[in-house]
Amino acid sequence: MPELPEVETVRAGLARVLPGRTITAAAVLHPRPVRRHIAGPEDFAATLVGRRFAVPRRRGKFLWFPFEDSDALVAHLGMSGQFRSDAPGADLVRNTRIVLDTDDGRQLRFVDQRMFGGLWLSPGGGDVPAEISHVALDPFDDRFDPVAVARTITRRRAGIKTLILDQGIVSGIGNIYADEALWRARLHFATPGEDLSVRRVATLLRHAREVMAEALGQGGTSFDALYVNVNGESGYFDRRLRAYGQEGRPCERCGTPIRREHFMNRSSFSCPRCQPAPRSGR
DNA sequence: CTGTGGTCCTGTATGC
DNA sequence: TGCATACAGGACCACA
Question: Does the C-beta of A218 come within 7 A of strand B?
Fold first, then answer.
């Protein structure tokens, strides 16, 4: 489950079951989700056995599970990844890719339909894995500075939505919460960053943080069974979406039907009246 | 450096 | 009932 609130929901769920647990067996059912492991999936599985989990961490949409030896298992859910905590006897759900047995008699299962997600072992990655050092702080990080990020954004020419989706500028925001934040801030997705004031962009970033915090409170956004927490349960924030997926429905502020457009090969939802297109942009 | 477009996959919904 | 097409919460890499 891709965006920050869904990933954080997963992290929090795993934080209740993983710390202190030792991996007793590992099985790779499909090689693709094993990433960056030159020695191959078998070696990946073998090298995990015997390691003991500390507390799971997250930056943006990346998760990592530090081990007590200072290495870490890094995970990204991609478009359709899930972690499930199950009893070993429970039926494997379809598309289960990797299974880790732990010494409390349970199994951690990585399930991923599309396999855009994956796992890898990061040597010495217990603090911040080197492979994700290019990922910017997310708006939930104590060190996140909306004004500094806004300054970066106002120096760029690309559309504002492109910029807030850029995980090297600010992490954690994906297509749903980008549209929701833009709706709240009354900004059109194609507005060039350089045409906006620092103040306006900082406000947008605060909206992004706020909408993601609200979603987290609802267990995230789920449209179908692909996006569930570690117990297989859906989140409920889809009922609170004001723009994303609301094509044709009246804008909650002004009643104008929400429109859907293609922007950078993805759907963008916005209110034509509250979020007017910039003059030059498209 | 910046911006864009293609690609990695499986599955579901919709239209003919 | 096929069969084809569009679309899906993302990231990365090659190229202009």
Answer: no
Annotation marks residue A56 as catalytic: no
DSSP letter (8 states) at residue A251: P
Rounded CA–C1' distance between A223 and B11, in angstroms: 14
Pairing of strands A57-59, A62-66: antiparallel
Nearest nt (C1') from A113 Cα: B10
C1' of nucleotide B6: residue with nearest CA: A265
Close Cβ partners of A224 (under 8 Å, ≥ 6 residues apart): none
Q: Please list, residue by residue across A176-200, b when 16 or more beta carbons sit within 10 angstroms of its beta carbon and e when fewer do.
A: bbbbbbbbbbbbbbbbbbeebebeb
DSSP state for residue A237 in the 8-state scheme: G
Catalytic residue of the set A16, A233, A266, A276: A266
The tokens 């396999």 sit on which residue?
A: A115
pTM of this prediction? 0.97
Question: How far from A29 is each of A38, A39, A156, A187, CA to CA, in Å?
Answer: 17, 16, 43, 45
- Asked if A131 is an active-site residue, the reply is no
| Cα A196 from Cα A189, distance rounded (Å) | 12
Distance from CA(A51) to C1'(C9), angstroms, rounded: 31
Whole-angstrom Cα distance, residue A162 to residue A48? 37
* pLDDT tens digits along A131-182: 999 999 999 999 999 999 999 999 999 999 999 999 999 999 999 999 999 9
